[in-house]
Amino acid sequence: MSGTPIENSNATPYWGNSYNVCQRSGKKCKPGTLVREWTGLWVHPDYLDRRSEQDFVRVSAEKLTGSIRPEPEDKFISTAISPNDL
Questions:
Q1: Exposure of 22 by Cβ count < 10 A (0-12 exposed, 13-18 middle, 19+ buried)?
Q2: Residue 18 · residue 34 · CB < 8 Å
Q3: Which pLDDT tens digit goes with each residue over 18-62?
Q4: CA angle at residue 41 from 40 to 44, to 5 degrees?
Q5: In a 3-state reduction of DSSP, which class is residue 62?
Q6: Is there a contact between 29 and 21 (Cβ–Cβ < 8 Å)?
């Protein structure tokens, strides 16, 4: 029996009974109801994850140079530190 496919000779194909499966929820859906998401998944419209607008923001190299906050000045301790201070 190894290597031989099992065939049902009495089966008749009925194309109107096929369902698609939502890749996010696992829900059965009628053909034509799934939509392709930006991640590449086929999902039901109720579970569609919209792409964030922040993904399309472009920043020039001039805006990337420098830091947002200025670096604080160094603070030096002028007195001796004892174990009790810690």
A1: buried
A2: no
A3: 788 999 999 988 888 899 998 899 999 999 988 889 888 887 766
A4: 135
A5: helix
A6: yes
Distance CA 74, CA 58 (A): 35
CB atoms within 10 A of CB 73: 6
| Other beta carbons within 10 Å of 43 | 19
The two structure tokens encoding residue 48 = 């569609």
Higher per-residue pLDDT: 2 or 75? 75
CA atoms within 13 A on the CB side of 50: 4
Pick from 19, 41, 40, 22: nearest CA to 31? 19
31 Cβ contact list (under 8 Å, min separation 6): 18, 19, 20
pTM of the model: 0.47
